[in-house]
Structures are given as C-alpha cells and as structure tokens.
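Running co-folding for WTA.
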Amino acid sequence: MSNRTGRARARGTQDIESLLQEKRVFKPDAAFAKQANWKRGTLAEYRDLAERSPQRFWAKMAREHVDWFAPWKRVLDWKPPFAKWFVGGKLNVSYNCLDRHLLGEDAWRRNKAAIIWEGEPGETRVITYGQLHREVCKFANVLKELGVRKGDRIALYMPMIPELAIAMLACTRIGAPHSVVFGGFSAEALRDRILDVGATFVVTADGGYRRGKAHALKPAVDEALDGIDAVSHVVIVRRTGQKINFEAGRDLWWHDLMERASADCKPAKLDAEHPLFVLYTSGSTGKPKGILHTTGGYLTYVTVTAKAIFDLKEEDTYWCTADIGWITGHSYVVYGILANGATTFMYEGVPTHPRPDRFWDIIERHQITIFYTAPTAIRTFIRLGEEHPKKHDLSTLRLLGTVGEPINPEAWMWYHRVIGRKRCPIVDTWWQTETGGILITPIPGVVSTKPGSATLPFPGIEPDVFDEEGRSVRPPNGGFLVIKKPWPGMLRGIWGDDARYVEQYWKRYRNVYFAGDGAHRDKQGNFWIMGRIDDVMNISGHRIGTMELESALVSHAKVAEAAVVGRPDEITGTAIVAFVTPVSGANIGGDLRNELREHVSKQIGAIAKPKDIHFTDALPKTRSGKIMRRLLRAIASGDERVGDTSTLEDYSVLARLREAEEG
Ligand code: WTA
C-alpha cells in the first residue's frame, strides 16, 4: 500500500516540477484566429478599456450582450466586500435566453435547436428555441398556479434531462431563485440544502439512467422531506417509469400539470440584483455554503465569457459534459449558452456506458464542434486507451476546453493530439462556483497556450499572487491566488450568512477576494494554478470539504474521532483518506470500513466515499489540540519526510499510525 501511494505522490511532485519547467508554447492557429469572435484587436481594445475604466468596460459588455427592460442607474455600487452591479436595471434571464431569440431579426432562431439531448439508453430529443420558450412559459405558469411567488426558493433535484433546464428557466421567468442539488447527493445532503435555503417547493424525477440502470431519485426526496412541512409541493418528472411512493396532496406529476398549463407567461421585470440562484459548495469549515448569484451581473458575465472563450457561432453544437448540479452546468450548459442563442448538447449518463467510446460516439453522431470537459475525465480516457477515440470521426471538433482542476501537461498533450487531432485550440479555464464564470483563460485564436497553464485573466479581471502578508509575489514564485477588483459575475454572498462570506473570502486580505487556490506566474504573466491550499479537496473536479467528511464520519455510532486528508491520485486528482479512531470496544476491520463508506455515502453522496480508511487509536495533535493534517497528509501519501513534529503532543501516535499504515 505505502508503495503504491508513494509512487502516486512521486508523480504528483513531478507534475508540479514539470509545470514549473513547461516550455512548450502553442501559438494561435491563423485560420482559427481569422474567424474568431474576439480577434487580437478586439481583445487589446477591451483590455485597454478595462484597464482605464473597468466600469465602462462592463457597462459596454452588459449593453452589448444582454437585453434590459430598464437601464441601470449605476454600473457598480461597491461597499467592500458587498457589490451591486447595474443598480436599478431591470431584466429577465429567461427573456434573454429565449424570447429575444424569437423576435426581430433573430426570429429565425425559433426553429433552431436550443437543446439537443441524448439519454443514456440512447434516445434523442431536439428542443427548438420556439419549443423551449413554450415549455418554460408553461412551467412558469404551473409554478404560479401552485402558489410560488417572486422570491420563493425552489429546490431542483433532477437527472440531466431537458426538464431541469426548463425548470431553471421557469424559475427565472417569475423571479423564484432556484437551488439545484446534484442528483448524486444523498437524502441527508438534500435535506440540509432544502432547510438552509428555505425551499418551499421541490422539482424532481422518478429517477434517471446511470450505468445502464434506473437510478432512483424520488425515495431520497421522500426521506429528505420527512418532517419538513414548509415544502408544499413536489413536482415529479416521469423519466424512468419506475415505481414511486406518491404522497397525495403534496406530490404532482409534471406531465399532468403541463397538459393543463397555458403557454402565455410574461417574464417578470426583475431588479438586476434580484437573487437568481443559490448553489451549495464545500468550504473549509462547517456545512456547505449556499453561494448566491444575482440576475444582471451574472447573466452579463456568463454571456460575454461564453461567447469569447468558446467562440460560439450560430452553427456550433456545443457540448459541456458537466452535470447541471454544478456551477459549470449552470453557467456553461444552460445560461451562458442559451443567452447567446447557441445550441447546447446535453447527455444524461456516464461517459463509458455501454462502451468506453460513448463520448466519441456522441461527438461523431451529433457532430459536436465545441467540447468542454474535466481533466479527470481526460485522464480516465487516457487509461481506457487511444483506440476508442481513434475509432471515431472527430473532425467536426474545432475547440476544446477543460475546467475543474489543474490539468497535467501530459493529459493536455493527449487531449490536443488524440481528441483535437492537433487542430483545435484548448482553453484551460480557471474559475469557481463563487466567481460565476471563467476568470482566467486563453482567448482562443489570440492567446498562446502552454500545457498546464490557464494563461491570462479575462479583460476586467485583476488576479494576483500574494504572499502571507498580502504582497504581490514575483514570478516565478508561488503564493495565494487573489482577485483585486470586483466583477459582475462574483458571488453576492453566502445565503443567510454575511459573516461567513466576509470571513471566508475577504478577511485574509483587506477588500481583496481570496480564492483558496495556490498559484504562480511565469515571466509572460501566465497563471499556473496549483490547486486548493485550504481544507477543501478536489475529487474528480468536485469540491468536498474535509470538515464535512469528518462530521459525517463522527456521526457514526462507532466513531470517536476522525480526520480526513487528500492524497494525490492519478485519475481523480485527489483521493480521500480517512483516519478514524473507533470508540473503545468497537469491532474494527473490513466490515467497519465498508460500513463507514456506506455511511458517508448516505450522509453526503457516493462521490464523498473515502478511498482509504485507516484505523488508529489516536490522532496526531498539537499541544493546543489541533489535528496535524500536514503529518496525516504525508502518511496518507506514503511520504517518509514528515517535516517538523516539534509541536506534536504525543510522539508515539506517529509511530503507531505508521505501523497501522504498513500493517
Ligand atoms: C479548481 C468549478 C486549475 C480550483 C468551475 C478552484 C481549477 C475549484 C480550474 C473550484 C483550472 C477549477 N485549473 N484548477 N482550470 N478550474 N479549478 O467551485 O481549485 O466546483 O478553486 O468550480 O476548482 O471548483 P468549483
């Protein structure tokens, strides 16, 4: 065991070194540059304007990319760390994603595909802008008739089916903020989120298809709502046809309601700062935090970035493989893409079902032109073998993107060579749930790329690398990634917890946004993101807090104490390692390991299951009682050099942990 982790660790270290020494540069392709939405001149002009006056730059973006019912009075009201963008402006997100594509000179888009969807079993649906508009208006009316009012929160717990996008857009139409909960989260996690956001309404499905099976969702909703009276209704989409428990009075079928609903629904004229959605993400302390995004700034930000970074054109078929349950799905499966009138492709299932070439088969059959995925997926495909993509005609692809975690240069090169066939620019996009949209990225056709670097900030974004004292660190030294100016897509707060918002993001450096990532810059100003430096782990591009996991473990009757750390993993980036002290007399061994894994899965979701669980009779602590994570991290990755242990309270703990590891 220690050998295997030792190797993984060595590779991780090598990656960091090779990142530091990466010399390969890919200049923009001339043919791509010629047709790009943003050309060299455009970018230079925008950078110049954004530098002279960020507010004028963002106002220009907002005017050019978004339709407003009423103009704003002030571009920015910045009372650090609280920002209001486009103050006084009125707009509607569903209007911008739908209605405006059916009017005036864009009216031809009525019969253009808005969503092309493929279910895991293989069926396809094409929904035109005209049809999507109709469905969204109908569901908005359903919500209204069931008593949903502007400002009411709606939880969406659904598989990757078009109804999820329809429900989101319907919420925006009437000004009811949605909170999408990833379908892989457990009943417990769903319940926490419903309670925290104060949802009064839930939309779900009987289930969805994953790995060839109908994966049930409704039982988790029933369990989550047990004893919660505030939720008046649950609307259920029939997707799999599996048997469900149906609670009369509360539960309603989507298809019954939609049959009767009128397709005439005026978009609400909402304030630019009206809450658009709350999306939960893990932090380094406590329970997941509800990240709040609002209407005008978010929509402006995702619309302009999608257009520039993905070079969206009318004839593109764009596919982002992220689940809508994550921010990537919100911003770049739904809002940013539909606001541009582009075609978004959605896939329900897993990448390797029924065969390892499912993704490449989809790209060939649907003639995908832009493909946006995560490094962890790329690493999985590398392991599965080149023969799978090579079987397929991928010549429609013209642009590739990655998101979610640092991409190791070798995976980047594979993506470039095997998927892009050396023709496609790659945009490595750095951003977060909190940032709303992409902040650091190459602009394709303009910015030269280097494997492993997210390159340069988007115009108007001012990142820096700081040391502990808040001094800008000179290239090529590393430090903490910060953003020095507010931007329209930034989070507006943590739902119901302003103090935590200030504490998490704005306290370390005064009035400067602290991202929680480590980074360094090279001499050309390119940013190289080194990953999280706080107690948040990035598992396959999904954020999980160590605190969350530890509380889940400790809530098990046989666990007295637990500490969780990450160790490098070739496929998932980071693997979860738990050190557990059982209550005295508990029977440990294989059974308890499985029991704990299941327990975590039930508390949070399958993505949070620890890969390794070590049992120990004590955890290494400092004299003040703090768990020494650095030490546990070293043990978890089989590193012999554990560093300074002078503050370790009980030296023998370390030796015993090592024995447990080797045994
Ligand atoms: C990481 C996902 C390196 C980073 C959009 C960040 C990245 C966290 C990249 C946010 C990238 C995202 N290169 N690291 N291109 N993109 N990250 O909130 O650690 O799920 O802080 O948002 O993912 O994860 P989140």
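Result summary
Residues 281, 326-328, 403-406, 428-433, 454, 515-517, 529, 531-532, 538, 543 surround WTA (CB under 6 Å).
Residues 99 and 245 are 37 Å apart (CA to CA).
Job closed.
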